[in-house]
Amino acid sequence: MKIKLGLLYGGKSAEHKVSLQTALAVTKAINHDKYEVHPIYITETGEWVRGTVLAGPLETVAELEINEKGTAISPVSLNTNMFALSDINNEEQLDVIFPLLHGPNGEDGTVQGLLELLNIPYVGNGVLASAAGMDKVVMKQLFAQAGLEQVQYVSFIRREWEGNREEAYAKVEDALGYPCFVKPANLGSSVGISKCDNRQELEKAFEEAFLFDRKVIVEEAAVGREVEIGVLGNDNPSCSVVGEILPKAAFYDYKAKYEDGSTGLAIPADISEDVYEEMKTLAIKAFKAIDGSGLVRADFFLTKEGKLIINEVNTMPGFTPFSMFPLLWKHAGVEYSALIETLVDLALQRHEEKQQIKHTM
Ligand SMILES: Nc1ncnc2c1ncn2[C@@H]1O[C@H](COP(=O)(O)OP(=O)(O)O)[C@@H](O)[C@H]1O
Ligand SMILES: [Mg+2]
């Protein structure tokens, strides 16, 4: 019996196209003798469309963009979302779902919550870890609690900023000074993020960041190399080798990440054994601080003095075969297809364990 695997991809998000690339790569790498792959496409307008079982690997992204016409599944109500997942005929009840989604509505616990309600096993982090990993303020608070070193920061909700902008800017200048980074609290892919060197840039950066969120975080600029590590597992996770981002842009922005290929990756990063050991310890601490499961990519700044400052964890890191996370595992001896299988196994294990939990007295 094949495992019925739902591939959930696309999404109403800035990372729609990245998600399609990832899904295409997964259909190419996955063992179709072991898994029966069911595509579930979320269109750019947020409609969920269930496709027919794949016969094998796909060749083009276009094949994944299932036409919503002629299917019974359309608008974005809770019921129709469930409809797309748990099949009407019951024959096609999925064994596990692999959400290949990034950012809000994909990586933030919302889809995870839907899958919890449906009691379908799914790959990756649960509701809490996903939500905590998406909100840069909450994530920082959890990291602080776990004793992880971080940059100084301040945060504002829109009302505070609108109420007294001058006070907000003064607070940033007092607490952090320049240069600083202004970011929407709940996004990814560097969207809405600006580096500011003066008051004028700060004002513009606030306007920009508040377009994307009602909460904004401002951070002191860290000076150091950007190093990243993969964490894989549930209760007893393990770490990959370390990779380094070698940016040509001013910082690792959306364009550098996805469009112009201006960023190089060094894998493994040229770091000492001591730094590597320390980074593994810190990454697992971070994973546990958000109650992670499945996978995270933990991102750090490494200062000249050899100090590791955590920047963030990504609960659904870039997952094409050319993305950092799969490449880190490849160098650790885990090929892309094996990585996919491991993640599915971890999802099934976590779900199995959850079924043992008592729900009544
Ligand atoms: N406090 C900081 N100091 C120095 N560089 C930063 C800082 N915050 C962000 N950056 C730069 O901006 C990039 C994107 O910021 P990040 O917080 O990782 O957002 P995202 O969640 O969008 O990836 C980082 O990879 C880094 O290059
Ligand atoms: Mg980042």
3D structure, described in words:
This protein is α+β, with helices and mostly antiparallel strands and 361 residues long. It folds into 3 domains: 3-122, Rossmann fold (3-Layer(aba) Sandwich), CATH 3.40.50.20; 152-220, Dna Ligase, domain 1, CATH 3.30.1490; 223-353, ATP-grasp fold, B domain (D-amino Acid Aminotransferase, Chain A, domain 1), CATH 3.30.470.20. It contains 12 helices and 13 strands. It has helices at residues 16-29, 78-85, 110-118, 127-134, 136-145, 158-163, 165-175, 199-212, 254-259, 273-289, 324-331, 336-355; strands spanning 3-10, 35-42, 48-50, 96-99, 153-157, 180-184, 194-196, 215-220, 225-233, 238-246, 264-266, 294-302, 308-314. The strands form 3 sheets. The chain has a 5-stranded antiparallel sheet. Strand 1 (3-10), helix 1 (16-29) and strand 2 form a beta-alpha-beta unit. The protein is globular, with a radius of gyration of 21 Å. The chain starts with a strand and ends in a 6-residue tail after the last helix. 42% of the residues are buried. Bound molecules: adenosine-5'-diphosphate and magnesium ion (MG). Residues 299, 312 line the site of magnesium ion.
Short description:
By secondary structure, the chain is of the alpha+beta class.
